[in-house]
Each structure stands twice: as C-alpha cells, then as structure tokens.
Amino acid sequence: MSTPRPEDRPMNTPDPTLERWRLILGAPAESCTGPLHGTAAERDSALDWLYGRDEDLRRRGVRRPSGSRAGGTGPSQVTAVDWLDDIHRLFPKETVERLERDAVENYGVHEIVTDPDVLARVEPSQALLRAVLRTKHLMNPQVLAAARRIVDSVVRELMERLRPEVRQAFTGARSRRPSRLPLARDFDHRATIRANLAHYQPEQRRILIQRPHFHARTRRRLEQWQLVLLVDQSGSMAGSVIHSAVTAACLWSLPGLKTHLVAFDTEVVDLTSEVSDPVELLMGVQLGGGTDIARAVDYGAGLVENPRRTIVAIVSDFFEGGDAYRLVRTVRGLVEQGTTVLCLAALDEEADPVYDRALAGRLADAGAPVGAMTPGRLAEFVAGKVGR
After folding, report:
1. Which of 41, 121, 129, 292 has the highest CB neighbour number within 10 Å of its CB?
2. Does 258 share its domain with 309?
3. 342, 237: one domain
4. Based on the structure, what is the number of domains in the chain?
5. Are residue 261 and residue 329 in the same domain, yes or no?
6. Domain-embedded: residue 294
C-alpha cells in the first residue's frame, strides 16, 4: 500500500511525521510543525513532566521548566501516580520502560520506588530494582513490602534466563564410552548404523533399528573446587550486585561446587548462608559508603581451602579507598600459591565497565586478569577451570 501524499490527506488531519518531529524538538518547533492535538498533546505533556526537569534542555528552549503543562503556566498538579498511568496508556512498553528508567536514574523521581501507590502501578525492571536497592533505607515497612514485588519479579526473570546458561556451561562433554541411558541428545548415529546393518531392507532403502546406541557423558569433578565471589556494594555497582547474587544462587545449586558470596564496602559481610534466596539477600544489601577492597580480599584469602582448586573473583570498580599496596600484595600472594584470581570490572548484561585502570593494571601485573564479564561468561570460565 502506498503512503498517502500530503495533498491527499483529509483536512484537519495531523501529519504524523510532523507530530513526531514536534515531540522530539519540543515547543520551539511548533511554529513549523503546527500545534499538537489529542493523544499527541497528551504524550507531549507526559514527556514534559519528566524532561522539563532537564536544565540543559530548558536553557536551549527545547523543554519548558519542570512542572508546567501544555496550555498553561501554573504549577502542575500531576503526581507520579498520574504520570505512570498516563505513560502506560500513551506509549508502548519499550518506551514506558525507558521513561521509568530515566525518571529514577536521571531525574531522581524517587516517588516511583518509595510511594506504595506508585509501586503498585510500576512495571518491574532492572533499573527499578537498582533504584529500590539504593533507596530502600528510606522506605517504611509498608513500602518495603510493595518494593519486594519488584525485587521478586526481576530476580525470578534473571534466574529463569541465567540458570540454563550456567547449567549448559557445566554440562559434561560426550565421551567415547557407550551408555545404556537412552537420551536423545546422546544418540550415537554412527554406532547405531554399524550395529544394525544386518537389518537393512534394500527394497525400502532403510535400516530397521533394533538396538540404538548412545554416548556416555563425562562428569565434571566439581567437589574439589571453590568459587569465592567478592562483590563491591558501593552505589555505582548496583547492577553487578544484582547479577552476582543471582549468579551465585545458580552456581550454588550445582552439586559439589562450593560457592561463597561476600559483599563489602569498608566492612565485609559474608552472605554465603543467604545465597539460596537472592531476594532476601538483595533486600539485606545496603549500597553506598566507602570501599576497602584490600580488606575484602584478605577475608576471601582466609576462605581458600585448596589454592590450586579455587577461583577468587573480585567484582569492583577498583577505586580503592583502603590500602592499594596491601591489596596488590595479597592478590600476588594468592596467585603465587596457585589460586586463580579474576578482577571483574562488571558482572551484568551490558558488561560495560568503568574502573580505575591504574590500579587494575597493577593487579594484572600481579597475575590477576582484569576485564568485564557477563554472568554467563563467568559460568563458562568456572566450568572450564573445573573441567580440567
């Protein structure tokens, strides 16, 4: 179907292209695009409620000052609850998630995660979970109960997505030994054909399978390995804290692999006993404060039972507030005794790291590789080590 030409459009029908440009460019573009009407005007009003807070946009005249509404100059009476209702009605889900994320992370609209009425309407997402973790110390018990819905929903989604990746990484490779366990994934077609050639039917050009053959699979020797996850819980590490908790829970369920989860700022808290319930674990984490990585690594070193079968993963931005010399010395000592030490600048889906490259370079020189890693890649790395 061809796109209607402007001259074919009925009178008084808005041009959708001009409407989109008006929504993007703001009120100053109205002289060229014409005014907005109906749903488009409502969308502009909802966008203005949020992005009108942006001082840079305001100075450039793109957005009106925060609080104004289309068609008026008085203070807005719209609450966060009203705004959420509006955007869920006016925009597709992907746009709603972006608007909610910007509201919390860029413009500090904390009512979204501290008002029980708002929490009841909001769409659970990782951005909102990060906001809950940052502001839950401000919440009363009623609000905390509502916030738990967001935590539970996002954690459940992450677990469902990550658990298959982890289990796949730890699945044993096929061996040459036969197996009596008839699993489709282990079907040995070559051995099956050889064993059943006597039953070939020339007229039908097919082999009757009377005795199928299957491969066995090697087993990982997990019982001799430890994984010690040391996770920085400073405010900038919220995403990594979430994914570390979920990753540890997935690894915890693997028989034989001994997993420890330790959170730290200037203090060190061993959360290993709570790993099986990442929701409770995250509700107990308090983001913020200083950072003493050296102290956390000292604690992790004390957990090591068999150095040559232990992986210590430090998840941090490596902006050390403690003794950097002590940190490098402890890491070097762990490496020299045979422990695998990983320095992870990120442990989330994006794996987009921001970290102190100078200190990271010193740790790399001490024998601890530095990089960014998603939870799935960490599971692959651990599985590769354990399967040797």
Report:
1. 129
2. yes
3. yes
4. 2
5. yes
6. yes
Average pLDDT of the segment spanning 72-97: 71
**Residue matched to tokens 């041009």:** 15
Calculate the alpha carbon distances from 133 to 54, 146, 178, 191, 233 in Å. 25, 13, 51, 55, 10
Residue 318 CA to residue 185 CA, distance in Å, equals 43
Q: Within 10 Å of residue 39's Cβ, how many Cβ atoms? A: 12
Q: How far is CA 75 from CA 26, 46, 319, in A?
A: 19, 14, 43
| Cβ neighbours around 387 below 10 Å, total | 17
Domain, as residue range, for 268: 222-386
Q: pLDDT band at residue 71, thresholds of 50, 70 and 90?
A: very low
List alpha helices for 229-366, DSSP H. Answer: 238-252, 278-284, 293-303, 324-336, 357-365
Look up tokens 């983001």; give the residue.
287
DSSP 99-127: HHHHHHHTT--THHHH-HHHHHHSPP-HH
Give 149: exposed, middle or buried? Use CB within 10 Å, 0-12, 13-18, 19+. middle
Per-residue confidence band for 69, with pLDDT thresholds at 50, 70 and 90: very low
The C-alpha atoms of residue 289 and residue 132 are separated, in whole angstroms, by 17
Return the closest-CA partner of residue 356 out of 302, 293, 313, 274.
Answer: 293
Report helix, strand or coil for 265.
coil
Torsion of CA 77, 82, 83, 84, to 10 degrees: 160
**3 state SS of 175:** strand
The verdict on 238 and 343 lying in the same domain is: yes
- Write down which residue in 162, 196, 217 finishes a domain: 217
Residues 206 and 229 in one domain: no
The label of the residue with tokens 């008026």 reads 72
- Angle at 231 (CA atoms; ends 352, 275), nearest 5 degrees: 115
DSSP label at residue 64: P
Number of Cβ within 10 Å of residue 73's Cβ equals: 9
How large is the greatest C-alpha to C-alpha distance in the chain, in angstroms? 91
**CATH at residue 298:** 3.40.50.410
My answer on whether 369 and 296 are in the same domain is yes
Each residue's pLDDT tens digit, 331-352: 999 999 999 999 999 888 777 8
